[in-house]
Amino acid sequence: MTTHDNKEDGHGLARRRDLAEFLRAVRARVAPASVGLPAGGRRRTPGLRREEVAQLAGISVTWYTWMEQGREISVSPAVLARLASVLQLTRAERHYLFDLAESTDPEPPKDDETRLPTGLDACVQSIVAPAYILDRCWNVLARNPAMLDLFDGWPDRDPQPNLLRYIFLDEAARHLVSDWDTRAQRVIAEFRADVAAYADDAPVQALVDELMDSSPLFAQGWTRRAVVEREGGLRVFNHPQHGELRFQQFTFRLAIRPDCKLVMLPRES
């Protein structure tokens, strides 16, 4: 066995141990009455019994016991989602559960898609470089004056600014974005990777359907199913007033809104 394999085994063992300890800890705090069970006689330990968790989650007691013992078993996302509900996990705890299980949440908690947490807009306004926040559909939820200037008045001229609609349906984007054809193809692959966890999300699907109908280039690129990371790097713009502008793009996922990202474009030095 190679050293690399040993490292992977060690990582897997630690992850399963953490998952087991986490399940035991959260099970102990759930009051039987809170899930519709009678408190019943005397309990040796606080919280729910393993048998009760298994019954409520619709899995076998043996299977759940193995999870709490840290055994190497495969657990489906649907089962993890039911366990998260039974164990009354908070948003952060649910995210932690799926991370430990190395699984994708089939029912990620929904955010208010039209509003940002208090203070985020002010943070964006304080950034000197062009900056903006995109949600899962790449709607622009916040932008600063530098971004407005860079995009020559967009998104303020759009009542519902969306970066994908701008790139594929606004003629101005073809002139502003240098090497537009290449960038547009990459954007499609970036968006596909970005929304993998939201494939069944109605607003995401509606946006994809709209662009498939409205943009032949998007339709062609989307059917290729190419996937790349939104890695940033050099971005060149042909600004109608300022000429050629060169920036380095950096994208940050927001901890308080995991479905959103902050994009910053400092000038290339």
UniProtKB/TrEMBL annotation:
Signal peptide annotation: none
Q: Which InterPro entries match?
A: Cro/C1-type_HTH, Lambda_DNA-bd_dom_sf, MLTR_LBD
Residue ranges spanning the membrane: these are none
Query: The HTH cro/C1-type domain covers which part of the protein?
Result: 22-94
**CDD domains linked to this entry:** HTH_XRE
Question: Which SUPFAM superfamilies does this chain map to?
Answer: lambda repressor-like DNA-binding domains
- PANTHER family per the UniProt record, alphabetical: BLL4672 PROTEIN, BLL4672 PROTEIN-RELATED
Q: What is this protein called?
A: Helix-turn-helix domain-containing protein
Q: What organism does the UniProt record list as the source? A: Mesopusillimonas faecipullorum
